[in-house]
Amino acid sequence: MEREYLLRMLETIEHQESSSILGGMEHEYEELEAHGYVTIHREHVQHYAVLTAMGKLKLQQLRDGLE
Asked: To which H or E segment does residue 39 belong?
């Protein structure tokens, strides 16, 4: 996943506290989950993602230009 795109996605999830997964975005969120950056909650009709501790660290690294 491209750095800028990853940064935007993680910032969006952080800003919203959680992010509803809209149609067509499942793959991107599953990729974030595979990296350990988000947890996808699938127990509701509308699945949503929240940042993990690793996701918060990655976001800070991206903001600091370390990645």
From this structure: strand 38-41
Looking only at Cα atoms, what is the longest distance across the chain? Answer: 37
* Burial degree of 64 (CB within 10 A; 0-12, 13-18, 19+): exposed
For the stretch 10-51, pLDDT in tens is: 999 998 877 788 778 889 999 999 999 999 999 988 888 999
d(CA 6, CA 37): 10
The structure tokens listed for 48 are 């949503």
Tokens of 67: 């990645």
On the CB side of 23, CA atoms within 13 Å amount to: 0
pLDDT score, position 10: 95
Q: What is the pLDDT of residue 5?
A: 92
